[in-house]
Amino acid sequence: MQAAQQGLSWVSIVRLGLVQTALGAIVVLTTSTLNRVMVVEVGLAATVPGALVALHYAVQMLRPRFGHISDNAPRRTPWILLGICVLALGGAGAAAATSLMLTDKTLGLIAAVIAFLAIGFGVGLSGTSLLATLAEHVAEKRRAAAATIVWMMMIAGFVVTTIIAGKLLDPFSPMRLIAVSGGVSVVAVLVAFVALWGVEPDANARMRETKPKIDFKVALKDVWNDREARRFTYFVFISMLAYNMQDLILEPFAGAVFTFSPGESTKLSGVQHGGVLAGMILMAVTGSVFGGSRKTVLKAWMVGGCLASAIAVAGLCLAASLGPTAPLKPLVFALGLANGSFAVAAIASMMALAKGQANAQAREGTRMGVWGAAQAIAFGLGGFVGTVAIDIASLLTSSKAMAYGSVFALEGLTFLAAALLAARINHGGALVVERSTMRAAMQNGL
To answer: Within a 10 A sphere around the Cβ of 277, how many other Cβ atoms?
Structure first.
């Protein structure tokens, strides 16, 4: 009983982080390496891989259903592993499909659509079930640090995979691409299997077997009717839309306005990711130190992080007008710092709200699924909105600096809207809702 109250140990949290590392290792090849091969080696328009990536985000609208499935299962870990396996097949299939495009573009594109559907299915199933496991079993005092650990390990998966795969892919050939991608998928599945073995408490399975099953529509309606869950969904969508809006325009901005070379703009992206990591670490430390006011700290970081992101983006607007004399790298690092702090605070808040609002029927997965779907849709739309806004702004003005500055201004306003939504979220309201619901059920003899 005491172990259950304490939640997962740090070792178990790191083991779940390894699963996120495996997930990131497969995904990063599909969104970066395959994207480049399709455009450069195959000669497709950039919109083709963009549409395929958007497709894998669209599939993740099924996350609420995936979360509900894991809610009604005795254990969540088999669903995490199943998702990783499907993702691995999709990742290897996407590499094979990309290689096929070199000889038959039509057949290769058909195969790629199927593969990216599998990628979206695998990411949605494994990712939602993993977050629900963390929400259900991580103690409150460890949530901020746990969120940081898991997401930093996913980023580590990005970094390690791109470095190793980059070396193995030279000299490039279609068969080498398939072999490297397939090898990454196999290693990822093995790592996930070992990491998940015995990590879920045995008491959890016995507890779940005695609980009544609940219909998906009822569970989804219950989540959406909860005011705090609904507010948090809006916050996740708006904040992640703003977060991803600069993703596809930051490097072109550095090249067009600051005359950065491709290598310099790539390094600028590294500066941003360094800021994101620093923000995550900073938030995790403060979230763990202030023990008696963790929920207040999470809310403060969400609001403050969004406001700081808006200020950093305003700095980019000013930099666009100043040109090469502006301190671009410090501004980009500051943007990453603000982004990382509010993003990991939002993830920790997901755990708190999902755990706090989950009643005897265990709906952590359904709630995580709703928020994960909102995040996936926002990520898919964010890059698209940013690029479309640049094209429109470029038609309205001949100044590249003014065009980029106007889009950054739009992003800043979106961050301000996210900060307003975050300020209205009540982390403690969930328990009140559930207690009143339980009291009413007891009065009615349920």
So the answer is: 18
Q: What share of the chain is helix, strand, coil (3-state, %, to 5)?
A: 85, 0, 15
How many residues does the structure list for the chain?
446
Residue ranges per structural domain of the chain = 1-211, 213-446
Question: Taking CA 32 as the corner, what is the angle to CA 30 and CA 37, rounded to the nearest 5 degrees?
Answer: 85
CB within 8 Å of 210: residues ≥ 6 apart: none
pLDDT of residue 65: 92
The per-residue pLDDT for range 231-272, each reduced to its tens digit, is 999 999 999 999 988 877 787 888 888 888 756 776 777 788
Tracing tokens 């997930």 back to the chain, one arrives at 23
What is the pLDDT at residue 212?
64
Identify whether the C-beta of residue 350 lies closer than 8 Å to the C-beta of residue 430: no
- Domain made up of 213-446: CATH architecture: Up-down Bundle (1.20)
Q: What distance in Å separates the CA atoms of residue 115 and residue 94, rounded to the nearest whole number? A: 5
- Report which residue type is found at 374: A
Architecture of domain 1-211: Up-down Bundle (1.20)
Of the candidates 182, 195, 192, 183, the one whose C-alpha atom is nearest the C-alpha of residue 90 is 182
Provide the token pair at 200: 């879920």
pLDDT tens, 188-236? 999 999 999 988 876 555 455 556 677 888 888 888 888 888 899 999 9
